[in-house]
Amino acid sequence: AYLEHLFGASLSQLLKKHGKDMTSYARQFAEDGQKSKATDFVGTLDVAARMYQTLGPLLETYDVLICPTNALPSVPAEFDQTTGTVEINGKQVNPSLGWVMTTPFNMMSRCPVLSIPSGRAASGVPTGIQ
User: Fold this and answer.
1) Domain residues of the chain, as ranges?
2) Which pLDDT tens digit goes with each residue over 45-76?
3) Residue 87 contacts residue 98 (beta carbons within 8 Å)
């Protein structure tokens, strides 16, 4: 709901004129943005506040947290989040954001975050940490 409200609603303004040119993922994101309500977004701010109640005390003790940027090394370039599936360790996750590890930090955007290269996966694609 957080990203749908912020960015999906913005994309939804382009649907009528450019929808046919959008990827299926962008189109779905824009359509979801059209349905987004301010109350949904306010609910995500409550979630972010609860997340920070956990993270804040950690930042009093630690100067840096190192986390993976994604939960898997890569997805195929042709992957379609509107029809595809993603499994991590045999468990199916949300194909849109279930494998992206940046979402909590996007929501708590008042905390500085940096994603940097960490090497290459066995497939040769670059990986990162944040």
Assistant:
1) 1-62, 64-130
2) 999 999 999 999 998 999 888 988 889 888 88
3) no
